[in-house]
Input
Amino acid sequence: MNRGMAKARTLEPQIYDSASLRVPFIHELTELGRYRFLLWNLILRDLRVRYKRSVLGFVWAMVNPLLTMAVLLGVFTQLFRFDVEHYPIYILAGLLLWNLFARGTSIALRSVIDNGSIRSKIYVPASVFVAAAIGSAFVNLLFALAPLLALTVLTGVRPTLAWIYLPVPILQTTLLTFGIGVLIAALAVFFADMTDIYEVLLGAYFYLTPIIYPVSILPDSLMNLERYNLLFAFIDGFRSPLLLGRIPDLGGVLLTTLAALAVTMVGWSLFTRLLDQFAYRA
Amino acid sequence: MRGSSNNTVISLTGASVRYRVPTEQVATLKEYVIRMLRGRRIEYRAFWALEGLNLDVQRGESLGIIGRNGAGKSTLLKVIARVLRPTQGRVWVKGNVAPLIELGAGFHLELTGRENVYLNGAMLGFSQAQMEERFDRIVAFAELGSFIDAALRSYSSGMIMRLGFAVATEVEPDILIIDEVLAVGDESFREKCLARMVEFRAKGTTILFVSHSLDSVRAICDRAIWIDEGRLRSSGPVELVIDAYRSHLLHPAQPASTPPAD
Output
């Protein structure tokens, strides 16, 4: 076997110079790209650990959102009567994207701290742990997508050509989740109470976003605010094609995507700016 | 430029690491905000874990690093392993570094041996194809046989250690960092590790070896440095450095300002 060949393909850079000038914003991005095999393995690790030891295995990923929906549906059709067509699907579709955001950001928040023992021994770009958190939330969404579409058809919604648009809001939400994820992951390294603070904020955000209720029940003041709620824009952009066969207008899509991109740039620049200090915090 | 000599693989120039220890604990955002609102600054006490360290290591050299607990040995390994960026000074490293600081760091107990090999390899910066190529040799060295597909939680601590050592050494690093791993494990495993390190030396791998066991340092290293309170106290042939370190341990009254004998 030619070991020399294998060596030449080693990913590790030949020279590391702590004094070399580099732009953290860009450097960390190329490092993340270099460690994509690790990213993939970390996502696999998450999925395996979560599902391997349960009897139903990966089926849980699909069944879980359905059970959640059944609970909410029970509560809301009995207690509140919202005038929403295809209410079960309306909730399930909203929860699908909400779970991507909530789960992704919550795991991302702790990702840098939780992998501290590895990072203190082996050099690994810290952002890979945040990306893995978002990645595994994204894969979980994909698992839940099939049963959602099946249920949608089963409850009498006719599939339309507009469904081709469905990946767009999913990707927009993923981008926003990553942006918020890196932002709070960096803050969590410095402030131990970030987990508690974020839990409260996330809870408030859930009820402020029309996920389990229609936007029409909001008073005018709040309704105006929803125009600035990016997550709601994406959830709405997911529901309209799914339930009504309508695709959102291009201008709005472009604007909200740019806004999510801006959030991500802010988060990424804060994260990469603080990067070198992470190792100094135990 | 330092490190321009063809054989130098590690070069530290005035490398310093300063930890800032807050004099009062301010670890939460709430406390931080309250303090800022009151206009009170948070005061820090500086702690230098490494101070102005100069060190050159040549290709193929086996360098022993000795010193008391908390002297800065681990911090030195961290700046070389790229885990910690020096506060001041410069660290220059040529080639890839595999740390054997704690065998199996990053292993997950719920995953199988096979899955852990790929995960660990990925952490060391290797690709799927590169790990596939090495996989059989790793399993052979670790003597795991069919256990490789069982969850790590069913392994004995010795098996986990063997697997960790096998992964870290089978990736054939240019620079191998070893921190007190030989202190654990049974006699046959220790001998196997030592044999592999001798093999590495013969191949021209640079080895950095931290140990409290001066005998191991004698067996493996051809040069040693002694670090105390973040500074280089002595550097040179193993026996001389060990003697200096020993006599310091026996007569701690000796002034700490002895200039480093280089």
